[in-house]
Amino acid sequence: xxxxxxxKALDRHWAASDANDFDVEHDLYQDDALLEYPQSGERIRxxxxxxxxxxxxxxxxxxxxRRIVGTGNLWVTEFILTYDENPxxxxxxxxxxxxxxxxxxxxxxxPFAPGPSRAQWVG
Length: 123
Known about the structure:
By secondary structure, the chain is α+β, with helices and mostly antiparallel strands. The protein has one domain: Nuclear Transport Factor 2, Chain: A. It is 24% helix and 46% strand. The protein has a six-stranded mixed β-sheet with strand order 2-1-6-5-4-3, with helices on one face. Strand 4 (74-83) and strand 5 form a beta hairpin. The chain starts with a helix and ends in a 14-residue tail after the last strand. The model has no long low-confidence stretch (mean pLDDT 95).
């Protein structure tokens, strides 16, 4: 796949994620893909297990993509994942092999109040 095809596949993936279309969402993954959540220490191997873990998530969730950057086999998506109306600023790092995701790492950060020491530079 070239960069344009991967970008279109990522757009489909995130739109499907937002729509809770779990079949289309997981078309992007290799059968033996690895998903890592470093903050919880979870490692989920295999497309079917990744999909099952997301289907089992009981919260109502929405995805808002802020930007997607990448080339070749490495792509990064910055997005807001909202669980039950609580936003979490998130980053997904996807490594592709033969046009499908072989390894994904996701990081999550909760919002926080602005620091008063930076107020003079904030516009």
